[in-house]
Amino acid sequence: xxIAEGIKQQIIDVADIRFRRYGFxxxxxxxxxxxxxxxxxxxxxxxxxxxxIGVEIALKCLHNKENMGKEVLQRxxxxxxxxxxxxxxxxxxxxxxxxxxxxxxxxxxxFISKEHPNVVKQHQSSLRAFVAEILAEGNRNGEFDVTDxxxxxxxxxxxxxxxxxxxxxxxxxxxxxxxxxxxxxxxTLLIEGLSPS
Length: 197
Fold this sequence. Notes:
Blueprint: H1 2-22, H2 29-35, H3 40-46, H4 50-74, H5 80-101, H6 103-115, H7 117-141, H8 149-160, H9 166-169, H10 176-194
């Protein structure tokens, strides 16, 4: 079983390199098999098509964002406001770098978003949970006055979508500096709205 998992991971890693270099759309299973030094028939024993491999790669990118969220939640010495700001800033930076430096990988993430919305919904659920934890912390320390934390977390995500969803991050070719400036303005407004009146 461990050997099979190791081979699957090798296929994912090799496909990731090819997708980044040539794009998801232009890559074939035969090319992935060749890069893995295996027959196409053997490759199909592990993945029924390249879309299944693509989902695994997209999940890795989404899990990277989620791990950043976990790290921000565990970071000591931050107020809830600073934690909310750090969370969205770091996610924006990661998403922008991903799209800017790996445009073919961005193509894959956009494809998975369209063809596998359940993957995106699960990711959204994780992000919402991180935001809800930050809002609950703010309530506990008196920074925020949020009655319905789950609803407020959903609203915060909607308000911030332009700063973490790849197709929107890259729309209109905004520089990272422009996006950071706009994000800071939106976060400031949200924090004011969440604070006790």
